[in-house]
Design brief:
Length: 400
């Protein structure tokens, strides 16, 4: 490359679009074909509630213990069914003229204001969505083309299926596209700088910079920290570090030696369940936007749930693999401070950035390999999913 070439390059505005990842680029309102957590189980009662997911309006209602999800639009005149009520067991009646739908299959079973022999019955229906309850939340599957939902356990983080744990969490409605939220979650560069002022990190120094490699294992990609630098001299500018006298010093290690459990240095003790996972890196992400951060004593998850192109729901969950009396200590700790400092103020810094991110165009730098790897994973996983939906008999691509 000539000098002139390299100058032109460095002046180039960067990526003008996301055409490298066409499915990802098109998924502004979310990827259909996945399960999403939408609200706490305790919030879904016999009174219908309207939500929005992947751009779809959905009504949730609990009937005799089971949660049902239907398209939140009456086919008669388009009134939201979430304004209606359950007149008969197993049904939901529209608030306007009393069209009454079977909660299980969405069929119109009565039109109250046209009498018991109304000929419209059986001639209209609303779409229903598969529903599951896990982690104290209601999960809804958004189909691509009316396909059956795969078992939700195949999509949950593996360590949360069949292992006892306690959890605390927070669900917030936020502005900004879900992809910015997910990219922010897995973003290699920002935590060290943006979060240096957070109360959650008040007593713990963060590295100045890392050398990172992305590794895939199964359906997750991991950020493996190869080198970790706590301070750095910037030629002609000076030294920059996040170390302060009041912050715990990172454990003594050779300069550059990295920890891959938590991002504030190596730990003396690691929870046996977490240790047994043998995660290649402390931050990992999988479709359809699930972030997992492994710390020595707990795992933090973030689910970025697409509401529509400009809004997402942030679901932050902290899990401890505890049973019995120890769980009381967890709840005290979680409600006492973790919920406010970590899921509140710390995560609020992310919400702030996600709201103001505006890309593409963008000009990426070395740590952004985390972003391009995630987009690549999404593209590959979704391509395989589309093929499976179009041709359900074909063998599944294990690696996707
Ligand atoms: S609009 Fe729903 S019954 Fe008329
Ligand atoms: Fe962050």
């Amino acid at each position: 490359m000539t000098r002139a070439d390299s100058q032109t390059r460095s002046r180039a505005p960067g990526r003008q679009d996301w055409s490298t990842w066409p499915h990802y680029n098109a998924a502004a309102a979310g990827f259909r074909g996945y399960w999403y957590p939408v609200t706490w189980s305790s919030h879904v009662t016999g009174k219908p509630t309207g939500i929005r997911l992947c751009g779809d309006a959905i009504v949730l209602v609990r009937d005799r213990g089971t949660v049902h999800a239907l398209h939140d639009r009456c086919p008669h005149r388009g009134v939201p069914l979430s304004l209606g009520r359950r007149e008969f067991p197993g049904t939901l009646s529209c608030a306007y003229h009393g069209w009454t739908f079977d909660l299980a299959d969405g069929d119109l079973v009565a039109a109250i204001t046209d009498g018991p022999r109304s000929p419209i019955c059986g001639k209209a229906r609303v779409a229903t969505y598969p529903v599951a309850e896990r982690l104290g939340m209601v999960w809804v599957y958004v189909p691509i083309a009316g396909e059956d939902a795969p078992p939700i356990d195949e999509q949950l983080p593996e360590e949360l299926v069949g292992t006892p744990f306690v959890m605390g969490g927070r669900i917030d409605d936020r502005t900004g596209n879900w992809r910015f939220a997910c990219e922010n979650g897995y973003d290699e560069g920002h935590a060290k700088y943006l979060h240096r002022t957070s109360l959650w990190r008040l007593f713990k120094a963060m590295p100045t910079w890392n050398v990172t490699r992305i590794e895939q294992r199964g359906r997750w990609i991991y950020r493996r920290q190869l080198e970790q630098y706590w301070e750095a001299d910037f030629p002609g500018l000076g030294r920059w570090t996040n170390k302060r006298w009041w912050k715990l010093s990172p454990p003594a290690a050779k300069d550059g030696a990295a920890s891959n459990i938590g991002n504030t240095g190596a730990a003396k003790k690691v929870d046996p369940v977490i240790a047994a996972q043998d995660f290649p890196g402390f931050a990992s992400v999988s479709m359809p936007g699930v972030l997992r951060i492994a710390y020595p004593g707990f795992i933090h998850y973030e689910f970025y749930v697409p509401v529509d192109a400009d809004h997402h729901r942030y679901v932050g969950v902290m899990v401890n693999f505890l049973e019995g009396a120890a769980t009381a200590r967890f709840y005290l700790k979680y409600l006492g401070w973790i919920r406010w400092l970590f899921h509140g103020q710390f995560s609020g810094q992310d919400a702030w950035m996600v709201d103001v991110t505006d890309a593409p165009p963008e000009k990426l730098y070395r740590p952004d390999v985390s972003l391009t790897a995630w987009r690549g994973l999404a593209e590959k996983d979704y391509t395989a999913k589309l093929a499976a939906v179009e041709n359900p008999a074909a063998p599944k691509n294990k690696d996707a």
